[in-house]
Amino acid sequence: MPFSYENLKRAEALIARYPHKRSALLPLLHLAQEQDGYVRPDAMRQIAEMVGVTPAEVLSTASFYTMFKLRPSGEHIVSVCTNISCMLCGAEEVLEVLEEELETAADGLSSDGKVWLEEAECLAACGGAPCVQVDYEYFENVTPRKAAEIARALRRGERPRGGLGLPADFEEGRATTGAERSASSGEGG
Ligand code: FES
After folding, report:
1. Which tens digit of pLDDT belongs to each residue from 102-116?
2. Three-state SS string across 138-152, please?
3. What percent of the chain clears pLDDT 90, i.e. is strictly above it?
4. How many angstroms does the Cα of residue 118 sit away from the middle of ligand 1?
5. In the structure, what pLDDT confidence band is assigned to residue 167 with cuts at 50, 70 and 90?
6. How many whole angstroms from 83 Cα to the centroid of ligand 1?
7. Which ligand 1 atom is the nearest neighbour of the CA of 120?
8. H helix or E strand, kind and range, residue 81
């Protein structure tokens, strides 16, 4: 739907931050996705009007970035890198397991409508291949068994933890976030 009254105010405030209205395009797309779970066509039309571009320009921007979804994408997004390093380290098997567990093909919604599964280009974690993201949080060195655990946890309504992504961390429940790690090593003052 178009922006709610509250989000319309937020959208106007976002636009006011930029010398050129069209520079607010990406933040407005984020706002539209935050509101509806994906960027709806009517939201794109409204954004186009607000920043003075054509709806086609908004669509071409939204469709360029994989983080913007143009159709309903469930509660969680699982992105599987199938680029070269990950492919050589078993990404295809990982993707296959996720497809089985979530009962969908890549670039589709799980049978219960909760999880969007997608193939991704290099996620810049080639040293931890194969790499998977859950809601943009990294899981590295993912084995088919780990992929199944991730999928089952999401379907149970649990949020698996990634962060460091090492298999041992995940198996032993010791995974820590980057912030926790920085805090414990005294980084960041
Ligand atoms: S190839 Fe998969 S993270 Fe780079």
Report:
1. 999 999 999 999 999
2. EECCCCHHHHHHHHH
3. 74
4. 14
5. very low
6. 5
7. 2
8. strand 76-81
What pTM was computed for the model? Answer: 0.72
Residue 47's domain is classified under what CATH number? 1.10.10.1590
Residue 120, domain extent: 76-185
DSSP per position, 103-116: TS-SSEE-TTS-EE
**Residue 45 CB: number of other CB atoms within 10 A?**
15
Higher pLDDT residue, 78 or 173? 78
96 shares a domain with 59: no
For residue 100, CA distances in Å to 30, 96, 97, 148, 161 come to: 31, 6, 5, 9, 21
Describe the chain by its helix, strand, coil percentages, rounded to 5: 50, 10, 40
- The answer to whether the CB of 132 is under 6 A from ligand 1 is no
Q: Is 70 a member of any domain?
A: no
Same domain, yes or no, for 159 and 181? yes
Atom of ligand 1 at shortest distance to CA of 128? 3
Q: Which of 35, 111, 121 is nearest to 79 (CA)?
A: 121
From residue 130, alpha-carbon distances to 110, 121, 123, 133 in Å are 21, 12, 10, 10
Ligand 1 atom at shortest distance from the alpha carbon of 84: 1
- Residue 110, domain CATH: 3.40.30.10
